[in-house]
Design brief:
iron-sulfur; Alpha-Beta Plaits; 4 helices; elongated; binds iron/sulfur cluster; 3 strands; electron transport; metal-binding
């Protein structure tokens, strides 16, 4: 899962950071740092909550990116002749 960061919408409320400070990094003025955020498997719930808490809708959750081309999809099938 990935969080798409729309920097221009950020108003520095820091609500995302309050939910998940290890996921959402802010600059010295309290605005989210630019760049999409790749979220580890175990942090997805926290990341979603943080993204939803943004009143400016500056954080967009993208659930489509990771699973499709992950290692499991690349494994050759076994047992086929
Ligand atoms: S909650 Fe939204 S507006 Fe506030 S710092 Fe995070 S991204 Fe920016």
């Amino acid at each position: 899962m990935r969080i798409i960061v729309h920097n221009a919408k950020c108003q520095g409320h820091a609500r995302c950071w309050a939910q998940a400070p290890d996921i959402f990094k802010l600059d010295d003025d309290g605005y989210i740092l630019p760049g999409d955020i790749q979220v580890a498997e175990g942090e997805q719930l926290l990341a979603s909550q943080g993204a939803r808490s943004c009143p400016e809708r500056a954080l967009e959750v993208d659930r489509t990116s990771a699973a499709r081309f992950g290692p499991a999809a690349m494994q050759p099938r076994t047992g086929e002749a």
